[in-house]
From TrEMBL, chain A:
SMART domains named in the record: AAA
Chain ranges of the ABC transporter domain: 7-258
Family, as annotated: Belongs to the ABC transporter superfamily.
GO molecular function, one term: ATP binding
Any Pfam family the entry gives: ABC_tran
Native source species: Fervidibacillus halotolerans
Domain of life: Bacteria
Protein name (database record): ABC transporter ATP-binding protein
Gene Ontology biological-process annotations: peptide transport
Membrane topology reported for the UniProt record: Peripheral membrane protein
Alphabetized UniProt keyword annotations: ATP-binding, Cell membrane, Membrane, Nucleotide-binding, Transport
Keyword ATP-binding carried by entry: yes
Chief subcellular location: membrane
Lineage summary: Bacteria, Bacillati, Bacillota, Bacilli, Bacillales
C-alpha cells in the first residue's frame, strides 16, 4: 500500500500517576499507521493498553493520566499540539468512536433521533427537517426497519444490539474518515455480534472509512481485519497482515494466545495455557515485558526490552529470538 | 480415558445421575400500585433432560435464555414452578431445606463472577472451611487437612490461606471458588460461566484445571456458557437453549458437525474463527431475542427463523429423537 496513512502514531506514551509514586505505563512507546479504507485490529488481553491507546488518539485522557510523549498525525495534522476546541471539531467529525457499552455513550434523557440529529447539525449546515430525513435514512442503513418509530424512542427502550446499532448511526452521521471501535460487540450475544460486525464491514465500504478495531477475540480479528497489532504490557509486540499472523505467528505471546484458544474446529485434550498472569502496568518485569511468562526466555530477555523490528517484509515482532531482516 | 471411551461407557451403562422432567420456572412480574402479578417471565419452560455420571453436559444459549435459572432450579437454590428433579433417582423436587441438607454436599455450584461470590471479609482458609463447618461433623484438624488438600489440587499455595480474595487475580479467585465447591467432595457440579470473566490465557489454565479435577474426582459437570468454543472443548454432550426451552441436544461431535435446529445452525455460523478452512457461511439472523414474558406462539424461534413455515406459529415443536442420541425440537424434522 503506497498511499499516505490517514493516521500515524509515533512513540506514543500515556502514563497514569497513581498513589504512592507509582506510574502505570499504560501505553509505552506505540507506533503504527492506518491507511485509507483498511481495518486494523488492536488485540490483547485485559489491561494491555488497547483502550488507553484509542482514548489517547481521541485525546480523551483525564487525570491521573497524561499523554507523555510521541505524536499522533491525523490527515497530516499533529493532534498532540491541538487545543481542546480544535480537537472537538475533529472528534465526531473526521474521527468517531464507538464503545463496548453503548449505554455509557448515549444520553438517556434524549431520544435516539434527537441524538443523531444533533450530531448531524453539529457537523453540517442543514435544517431540522433535512436532519430528520437524514437520521431516518441512517437508522434504516444500520438496520432499523421501523426507523420512523425508533427515532422517537429512548435508549432504555432498545436492546443491547439495537443500542450499538444506534451508536453506529451516530458515529456515521458525521461521515468519519476513521472509526475507532473499542470492543463494539463484547457485551452482545453471538448472533447479534455477527449482525453488528457484518454491518461495520458494510459501512466501511459504503462510507470509505478506515476502522481501528479493538478486540480481545482473535476470531474477530481473523474474519474482520486486514492488518493486526498484538499488544502486551503497553507496547505492540507483533504487527503484520491478518493472513501472516495466523500462518506464521512469531512472538511467543501471540503463539501462546493462539494455543490457549479453544476452537470449534480443532479438538485438543489440553489447552496450551500461558503460565502466570498479565503484569500490572506499574510493575512490568525487567527486560522483555513477557519474560516472566515466556517459555523461550533467555538471559538477555531479563536484561533489556527488545525493539519492535521488521523480521520479514511487513511483519514486525518485538522479541530477541529474531533478527532484523535487511 | 479418551473422550470417545468415556462416551462409550455412558452409553453402555447409562448411569443417570440427574434427571429433569418438564421443569418450569416462572418469575412473576408485578405491576400497578397493588403490586399484583401482571404476567410471568418464563425463564425455564418445560425442560426435560438427563445428565450421565462422569460426563460434562454443556448448556449454551444467548443471554436471558434461562441457563442460570435452570442450573439454580436443578440445585434447588430456586424452587421450580412445575416439573420434577431426580438426583440419583431420588425425587428432590419438593424436599424441604432440612431434607435437602444431606444431598446438598453432593451438588455444588461455581459462579461466573469470583468477585461477587466470595465474601471479601473472609480469608481463603475461612472461605474454604465454611462449607465443611456447615455440612460436616469434621473436627478442626480434619477440616484443616481437607482445606490443605483441596488448595493443593486447585494449584494454590498453602501460604495463600491467610490472604483475602482481593489479593488475588481473577484466575486465582476462580480457583478459590472451585476449591470451595469441591472441598465437600461433591458428585455433581453446576459450573455457571466459570471462565467467562477471564482472559484467554487464564481461561485456558482454569479449563485445564477443571478437566483434571473431573478425571481425578470423577465429577459430573453441568457446564453453562455462552461461548460455544469453550463448551465444545469441555463437554461430552451439548444442549442449546432458546427462550427457556431446549432447542437441540446431542453428543458434541453430532451437534457441531451436524447441527439440525435452524437456531443452532445460525449460532454456530456466527462464531468468528481463526481457521479459514472451517469457516461456515454466516447465517445472519434478523431481529432480537423476543421477551421471555411474552414468547411467540408455536415455536419460540419462529420470529427469527429463516426456515419458518405456517405450522411453526401454530404448534409448539417437541424434542424429537433423531438417532445417535440427537434430539431436536423443530417442525422441519417431522
Ligand atoms: N484511570 C486510570 N487510572 C489508573 N490506571 C489506569 C486508568 N485507566 C487505565 N489504567 C491502566 O492502564 C492499563 C491499560 O488499560 P486499558 O484500559 O487500556 O486496557 P485494555 O487493553 O483496554 O483492557 P480491557 O481489555 O480490559 O479493556 C491498565 O493496566 C490499567 O490498569
Ligand atoms: N429472580 C428473578 N426474577 C425475575 N426474573 C428473573 C429472575 N432471574 C432471572 N430472571 C429472568 O429470567 C430469564 C432467564 O434468565 P437467566 O439468568 O436464567 O438467563 P441466562 O441464560 O443465564 O442469561 P445470561 O447469559 O445473561 O447469564 C431472563 O429474562 C431474566 O431476566
Ligand atoms: S419449528 Fe420452524 S421456526 Fe421453529 S425452528 Fe423449526 S423451522 Fe424454525
Ligand atoms: Mg479496554
Ligand atoms: Mg446466566
Amino acid at each position: 500500500m503506497e498511499k499516505t496513512p490517514i493516521l500515524e502514531v509515533k512513540d506514543l506514551k500515556t502514563y497514569f500517576y497513581l498513589e504512592g509514586n507509582k506510574v502505570a505505563k499504560a501505553v509505552d512507546g506505540v507506533d503504527f499507521q492506518i491507511y485509507p479504507g483498511e481495518t486494523v485490529a488492536l488485540v490483547g488481553e485485559s489491561g494491555s493498553g488497547k483502550s488507553i491507546t484509542s482514548l489517547s488518539i481521541m485525546k480523551l485522557i483525564d487525570k491521573p493520566g497524561k499523554i507523555e510523549g510521541g505524536s499522533i498525525l491525523f490527515s497530516g495534522t499533529d493532534l498532540i499540539s491541538l487545543t481542546e476546541k480544535q480537537m472537538t471539531k475533529i472528534r465526531g467529525n473526521d474521527m468517531a468512536m464507538i464503545f463496548q457499552e453503548p449505554m455509557t455513550a448515549l444520553n438517556p434523557v434524549f431520544t435516539i433521533g434527537n441524538q443523531i440529529m444533533e450530531s448531524l447539525r453539529k457537523h453540517q449546515k442543514i435544517s431540522k427537517k433535512e436532519a430528520y430525513i437524514k437520521a431516518v435514512e441512517l437508522l434504516k442503513i444500520v438496520g432499523f426497519p421501523r426507523a420512523e418509530e425508533t427515532i422517537r424512542e429512548y435508549p432504555h427502550q432498545l436492546s443491547g444490539g439495537m443500542r450499538q446499532r444506534a451508536m453506529i448511526a451516530i458515529a456515521l452521521s458525521c461521515n468519519p474518515k476513521l472509526l475507532i471501535a473499542d470492543e463494539p460487540t463484547t457485551a452482545l450475544d453471538a448472533t447479534i455480534q455477527a449482525q453488528i460486525l457484518t454491518l461495520l464491514d458494510e459501512m466501511k465500504e459504503k462510507f470509505h472509512m478506515s476502522i481501528l478495531l479493538i478486540t480481545h477475540d482473535l476470531g474477530i480479528v481473523a474474519e474482520h481485519a486486514d492488518r493486526v497489532m498484538v499488544m502486551y504490557g503497553g507496547q505492540i509486540v507483533e504487527s503484520t497482515s491478518v493472513e501472516r499472523l495466523f500462518e506464521n505467528p512469531l512472538h511467543p505471546y501471540t503463539r501462546g494466545l493462539l494455543e490457549s484458544l479453544p476452537s470449534i474446529d480443532r479438538e485438543v485434550e489440553r489447552l496450551g495455557a500461558i503460565k502466570g498472569i498479565v503484569p500490572p502496568a506499574f510493575n512490568f518485569p525487567k527486560g522483555c515485558r513477557f519474560s516472566d511468562r515466556c517459555p523461550y526466555a533467555m538471559e538477555e530477555c531479563h536484561q533489556s526490552n527488545p525493539k519492535l523490528l521488521e523480521i520479514e517484509t511487513n511483519h514486525q515482532a518485538r522479541c530477541f529470538l529474531y533478527k532484523e531482516s535487511v | 480415558m479418551t473422550i470417545t471411551e468415556k462416551k462409550v461407557i455412558q452409553e453402555t451403562n447409562n448411569d443417570t445421575i440427574l434427571e429433569v422432567n418438564n421443569l418450569k420456572k416462572y418469575f412473576p412480574i408485578k405491576g400497578g400500585v397493588l403490586r399484583r402479578t401482571v404476567g410471568h417471565v418464563k425463564a425455564v419452560d418445560d425442560v426435560s433432560l438427563k445428565v450421565f455420571r462422569g460426563e460434562t453436559l454443556g448448556i449454551v444459549g444467548e443471554s436471558g435464555s434461562g441457563k442460570s435459572t435452570l442450573g439454580r432450579v436443578i440445585l434447588r437454590l430456586l424452587s421450580p414452578t412445575d416439573g420434577q428433579i431426580l438426583f440419583e433417582n431420588e425425587d428432590i423436587t419438593s424436599k424441604s431445606n432440612r431434607q435437602l441438607r444431606p444431598i446438598r454436599k453432593d451438588m455444588q455450584i461455581v459462579f461466573q463472577d469470583p468477585y461477587a461470590s466470595l465474601n471479601p471479609s473472609m480469608s481463603v482458609q475461612e472461605l474454604i472451611e465454611e462449607p465443611l463447618i456447615v455440612q460436616t461433623n469434621l473436627d478442626k484438624n480434619e477440616r484443616k487437612k481437607k482445606v490443605n488438600e483441596i488448595l493443593d489440587k486447585v494449584g494454590l499455595r498453602t501460604s495463600d490461606q491467610l490472604k483475602y480474595p482481593h489479593e488475588f487475580s481473577g484466575g486465582q479467585r476462580q480457583r478459590i471458588s472451585i476449591a470451595r465447591a469441591l472441598v465437600l467432595n461433591p458428585k455433581f457440579v453446576v459450573c455457571d460461566e466459570p471462565v467467562s470473566a477471564l482472559d484467554v490465557s487464564i481461561q485456558a489454565q482454569v479449563l485445564n484445571l477443571m478437566a483434571d479435577l473431573q478425571d481425578e474426582l470423577n465429577l459430573t459437570y453441568l457446564f453453562i456458557s455462552h461461548d460455544l468454543s469453550v463448551v465444545k472443548h469441555i463437554s461430552d454432550r451439548v444442549a442449546v437453549m432458546y427462550l427457556g426451552r431446549i432447542a437441540e441436544v446431542a453428543p458434541k461431535r453430532e451437534i457441531y458437525e451436524k447441527p439440525l435446529h435452524p437456531y443452532t445452525q445460525a449460532l454456530l455460523s456466527s462464531i468468528p474463527t481463526v481457521d479459514k478452512n472451517s469457516r461456515r457461511e454466516k447465517i445472519i439472523l434478523q431481529g432480537d431475542l423476543p421477551s421471555p414474558s411474552n414468547p411467540p406462539s408455536g415455536c419460540p424461534f419462529r420470529t427469527r427463523c429463516p426456515k419458518a413455515f405456517d405450522l411453526c406459529s401454530e404448534v409448539r415443536p417437541e424434542l424429537k429423537d433423531m438417532g445417535n442420541n440427537h434430539y431436536v425440537a423443530c417442525h422441519l424434522y417431522e
